Amino acid sequence: MKFGWFFLFYLLHLGFCVLAAVAPPIVFKGKSLTGILSAIDVIDDHTVIGILYFIGLGLFCLEILVGIWVIQQVGMYFRGSGKAAEMKREAARGTLRAAI
Q1: In this predicted model, what pLDDT tens digit does every residue of 74-89 receive, in sequence order?
Q2: What would be one Pfam family of this protein (predicted)?
Q3: Residue 30 pLDDT exceeds 70
Q4: Cα(14)–Cα(93) distance, rounded to whole angstroms?
Q5: S-S: 34 plus which of 12, 27, 53, 86, CB 3.0-4.6 Å?
């Protein structure tokens, strides 16, 4: 179950990072996230702040790439450690017990 919770919350985290990297004005009305859409909108009026927004965008993209790498590494560890097969056997036993 610990791996399941990790995958669930880490995928939510990656989803937020993608949302923050895009920063659509539909979800966040102001300029609260440093995404590509906010950076393009701000760079016209304030060049220095626009550059900082692009730096934030780069960091969010880097976080997405590192996050994908981490979830791949944890997935390989999960499958290689035998936890996946153990969880399948435990689920089958639980189903059998519930049926009896």
Answers
A1: 888 887 776 666 777 7
A2: SCAMP
A3: no
A4: 34
A5: 53
